[in-house]
């Protein structure tokens, strides 16, 4: 059941908050041993919060809806591990701003989800907490860094979730797990109480079943936070109410270089999805995104330094406690001269200006979310364009350009390659969440890719029915 | 094109910031830098700094 339908069932009394929580807890108990999506399950706390909600008169839009959070988002009294050894014993005293917002909307946090250590990688194979497994093929990665979110939503282990995205960390697991995820515009959702990766790129956003679910979650968590220096003052729209307006006449720029460079079967799925968008009223136009080939370098020029700055004290005192890949990536930042960061900043401004001009000509951009299907756990290279490429390099051109400009991007399921999900990325201008979600919703009204579920059996051979 | 710094040079820079990587760490960093440094050089050519009076 989608979050939107569950919220409706809770509102009408078809289901109580306690019943909703209990059903997800049973499902987690039955299935998560195969997936490792959760790091912490707040069973007792969630049930108590459900009982407490039933005694309140105020009923927010997410009243009684169980949600889960990437384990970089603070929940008072519950560990925030960031899937790291360094924060394994860290228990925050305060909720993150987004958690305050979720609670105000009536949501119940049932647990904290697995991720790539410190959200600094796209595999979700923490050496400290183990890999999260893809519900469609457990020997494959979920993507990352919000991999636990992708797995939990795909396997119906929670109704909705909130993750983070610095260079693809919401979009990649959404694509790889066959679910819907939105990286909002940078600054639209507060980062306060969230473990940082690279502050000028970090964005908190929803991963759920559908664009409607993401719209409901975004409406709950978005909004200016004076306590977060990266937060922007921007209106929070009733996103879910704007989804039904359709996309007739919407101009969608197809980033042909990214479609052409993808695995042919992925490209085929994306091209068919673009045909669906056209059939529901969009006008497709091929576009060339300026500086696209440099976008990854520009982001890295800034991100390596920002991430090293965030971690500097631990690099001095806890270096051996990082997993090898994250340790190396963080160390790179301390060796880069300030001129590299400054060049990145100048180039980023140039990209923002050029993409801003492009969004005068089109309403959205479209591309594959990822160029290849999810690789097997432990695989470091993927085949792109007939050449073996490092996985971490292959994903950069598909994700960094949009992170650079702080644009909203939704990834929607748009097909399968050999049983593995494929995602379509729809990119909007800054603060264009309503348009991005509207297009995603129109696509999902015309297709059923988002309704497909992995054939994941419980250990007993049966199935734990989702709520 | 800038050569990838030697392990000894990297160690000097790291220790100057109070960080003590292992030899293995420095080799991993050098693998990253071998790819990144030429790309960063190209980036600096692409967007050269503007002189203060421009």
Annotate the secondary structure layout.
The complex is a heterodimer of chains A (467) and B (54).
Chain A: H1 3-11, H2 17-35, E1 38-41, H3 43-54, E2 66-70, H4 97-104, E3 108-113, E4 125-126, E5 130-131, E6 133-134, E7 137-141, H5 147-154, E8 160-165, H6 171-177, E9 180-183, E10 203-208, H7 211-221, H8 239-242, E11 251-255, H9 256-261, H10 264-279, E12 283-287, H11 295-317, H12 324-334, H13 338-358, E13 364-368, E14 381-384, E15 387-390, H14 391-394, H15 396-404, E16 409-417, E17 420-427, H16 433-446
Parallel strand pairs in A: 2-3, 2-8, 11-12, 11-13
Antiparallel strand pairs in A: 1-3, 4-5, 6-7, 8-10, 9-10, 9-16, 13-17, 14-15, 16-17
Helix pairs in contact in A: 2-3, 5-6, 7-16, 11-12, 11-13, 11-15
Chain B: H1 7-16, H2 23-46
Can you describe what's shown?
- The complex is a heterodimer of chains A (467) and B (54).
- Chain A is an alpha+beta fold.
- Chain A is 39% helix and 18% strand.
- Chain A has helices at 3-11, 17-35, 43-54, 97-104, 147-154, 171-177, 211-221, 239-242, 256-261, 264-279, 295-317, 324-334, 338-358, 391-394, 396-404, 433-446, and strands spanning 38-41, 66-70, 108-113, 125-126, 130-131, 133-134, 137-141, 160-165, 180-183, 203-208, 251-255, 283-287, 364-368, 381-384, 387-390, 409-417, 420-427.
- The N and C termini of chain A lie close together (6 Å).
- With 54 residues, chain B is mostly helical.
- Chain B is 63% helix and 0% strand.
- Chain B has two helices and no strands.
- The interface between A and B is medium-sized, with 29 and 27 residues.
């Amino acid at each position: 059941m989608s979050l939107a339908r569950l919220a409706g069932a809770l509102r009408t009394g078809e289901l109580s908050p306690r019943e909703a929580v209990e059903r997800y807890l049973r499902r987690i108990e039955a299935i998560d041993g195969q997936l490792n999506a959760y790091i912490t399950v707040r069973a007792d706390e969630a049930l108590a919060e459900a009982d407490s909600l039933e005694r309140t008169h105020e009923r927010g839009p997410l009243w009684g809806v169980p949600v889960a959070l990437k384990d970089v988002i603070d929940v008072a009294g519950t560990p925030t591990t960031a899937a790291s050894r360094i924060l394994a014993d860290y228990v925050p005293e305060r909720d993150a701003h987004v958690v305050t917002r979720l609670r105000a909307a009536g949501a119940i946090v049932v647990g904290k989800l697995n991720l790539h250590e410190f959200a600094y990688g796209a595999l979700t194979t923490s050496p400290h907490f183990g890999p999260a497994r893809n519900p469609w093929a457990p020997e494959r990665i979920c993507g990352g860094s919000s991999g636990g979110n992708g797995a939990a939503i795909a396997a119906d282990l929670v109704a909705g979730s909130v993750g983070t995205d610095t260079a693809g960390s919401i979009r990649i697991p959404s694509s790889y797990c066959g679910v819907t995820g939105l990286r909002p515009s940078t600054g639209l959702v507060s980062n306060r109480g969230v473990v940082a990766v690279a502050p000028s790129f970090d964005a908190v956003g929803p991963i759920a079943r559908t664009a409607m679910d993401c719209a409901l979650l975004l409406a709950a968590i978005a909004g200016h936070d004076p306590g977060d220096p990266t937060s922007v003052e921007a209106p929070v729209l009733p996103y879910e109410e704007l989804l039904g307006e359709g996309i007739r006449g919407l101009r969608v720029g197809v980033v042909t270089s990214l479609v052409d460079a993808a695995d042919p079967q992925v490209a085929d799925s994306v091209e068919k999805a673009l045909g669906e968008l056209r059939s529901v009223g969009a006008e497709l136009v091929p576009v060339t995104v300026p500086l696209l080939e440099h976008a990854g370098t520009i982001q890295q020029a800034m991100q390596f330094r920002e991430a090293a700055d965030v971690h500097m004290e631990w690099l001095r005192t806890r270096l051996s406690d990082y997993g090898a890949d994250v340790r190396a990536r963080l160390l790179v930042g301390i060796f880069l001269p300030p001129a590299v960061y400054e060049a990145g900043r100048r180039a980023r401004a140039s990209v923002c200006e050029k993409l801003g001009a492009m969004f005068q000509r089109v309403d959205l951009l479209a591309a594959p979310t990822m160029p290849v299907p999810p690789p097997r756990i432990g695989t470091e290279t993927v085949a792109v364009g007939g050449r073996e490429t490092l996985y971490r390099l292959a994903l950069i051109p598909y994700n960094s350009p949009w992170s650079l400009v702080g644009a909203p991007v939704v990834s929607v399921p748009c097909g399968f390659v050999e049983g593995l999900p494929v995602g379509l990325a729809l990119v909007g201008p800054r603060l264009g969440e309503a348009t991005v979600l509207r297009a995603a919703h129109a696509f999902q009204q015309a297709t059923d890719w988002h309704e497909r579920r992995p054939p994941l059996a419980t250990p007993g051979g049966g199935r734990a029915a989702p709520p | 094109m800038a050569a990838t710094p030697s392990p000894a040079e990297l160690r000097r820079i790291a220790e100057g910031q109070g960080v003590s990587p292992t030899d293995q760490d420095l080799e991993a960093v050098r693998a990253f830098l071998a790819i990144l440094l030429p790309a960063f050089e190209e980036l600096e050519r692409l967007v050269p700094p503007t002189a203060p009076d421009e």
